[in-house]
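2024-03-11 09:14:02 DEBUG pipeline.ingest accepted 1 chain
2024-03-11 09:14:02 DEBUG pipeline.ingest length=599
2024-03-11 09:14:03 DEBUG pipeline.predict start
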Amino acid sequence: MDALSSGDCKTNSCSSPPAPQPQPNSTNKGPVPARVSELNAVRALGESVSQDWATRQNLCRNLCSKCLAYQDAAVDNRSHLHLINLEQLQMSDCEFCDVLCRAIHWSGIVRDSGDVPYLWVGKGSLEIAIQGCSDGLSPVVQLCCEPELPSPGSPETIRQIFEWISHCKQTHSLCDVQDPNFMPTRLIDLGPSNDAIRLIETDSKIQASYVCLSHCWGGKTPLTTKVDNLQMHLQSIGWHEIPQTFRDAICYTRLLRIRYIWIDSLCIIQDSPDDWSTESKMMGQVYSNAYLTLGAVTAPDSSTGMFNMSSSFGLHSKRKITGITIAGFPYLYNVYKRPNHDHLHPAGWRSYDDRESFPLLGRAWAFQERIMSPRFLHIGHPELRWECKETVLCECGDIDQLSIKMTWVNVLESSSAFQLEKARRDLVEAYSRLSLTYEGDKLPAFSGLAKQACRASPSSEYLAGLFRGSLIVDMLWMNRRRDTNLYRCDLKHWRAPTWSWASLDAFVVFPLSSYSHIDGEEPERSSLLKAYIEIIEAKCTTSTSDPTGSVSDGFIILRGPVFDCSIRDGKLCRVSAHQDIPVDGELYLDRPEHALQGQ
């Protein structure tokens, strides 16, 4: 089978790993088309040079000492090298300095006399950026040689994925599935050959590896399994019915020689409340025991395919710089100017705040899907990214920091109670930024991560997103969105008690998260925060059998001092406290818009 081709697309001339051959007694209903990703646009990140620096040294004999240092650094790991002196660059006889000078002049990256450019040398790429510019307004200039990186559906990319998987399996003990005996209730069977795809019920009789798909439903409802078509899907799912994103995921799964894939819209009976309740509470297990999760990060819905190129992120312009070296060899550099862009850094979702370019990473359900999966492959424009429990990689080689997933895994493996509490609150802060189609999913979409936290704190009761053992600090959250014209957080229906962050659709933060009031737990911190309240009782009633799922009611009883205060325009103007000493303060409302309405 050619690498990821489609019945509507031309076949890629490069071959991929062969598809399994049909069994003698199988009923072959015709080949399932694969898909070739015909990506003509150059990807902004991940450009690679066709010749390494050692080869180019033979072409460019007249290099200055700094460019020779760049050459040495590029062969090893990435390095943040020296600032560029424009005056020296213009006066240099170095051939590569001339390339840099022409690239800077053409791109217009230097906007005023205060801008200081620097050269970033990565393994296989060169970038010029402005020092200290993080607002995304200044473009980034990238230099590379022909050819461009292969598309996400090419044989070269498939080989890269195999290399990442092989390295992970051989060296990462943390990335093993949690429960090898677990199997989802239903899976999509791709068959031993190109037979028709069908839904199967495992009934604990099948023990095999499976792949998961993490995707956006978007405004278009994808192909779903319902009560009235369940039996039909158990017989066969026609290729013509399957949307493009699902097709791409199926093709990737087959190329990885995996027979089964789990897709939520097909493996959960969508119009059965009982089935949805049962399956949703197992979502964490489904993803944590998957061989690999494919993330369609740039696809806004199931119809666009995993290689969606419609995102606003991309190259604004391109220019070729050519010349002849002193040795008489021609050279060519493609120079690209693109918007500034962050990689996947420790803040996790924050570096993907452009929801238009990476719609999946703005979805709440995808948060735990990504973190709980042992291996998560980000597929789409501009490049592939690999994220497992022990490393984060990308095609351009420009990532070397911990992700939020790795931080969480490390905390669960071996951390103090205080570190675990802070990590839980960090997860909530990141999760609260994300969007839900159904507001009632706020706690269910966090349920898998909550179960992991509960296992790490077995003696602490879970209360609608908070924990009894750290409840005083957990309740000290606030709605960060102060501008009521930009953000309204009222819900149509009650979802959680008001002391829970889950009661709002708001970006919440825990300003005192770094402090602890636990006696004997990191005493140098416990002395910094003193609690003046006592929790008498706290209780939540779950609305399903899932202990970390939705709640139907909840209450809390506290004992502590009460102060009279005056409020003006959201400010505590006077507080009557002990000895009647006036104190100024600031009031943080959960629903700032209520202050404008006199509520």
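2024-03-11 09:14:41 DEBUG pipeline.report The chain has 17 helices and 23 strands.
2024-03-11 09:14:41 DEBUG pipeline.predict end
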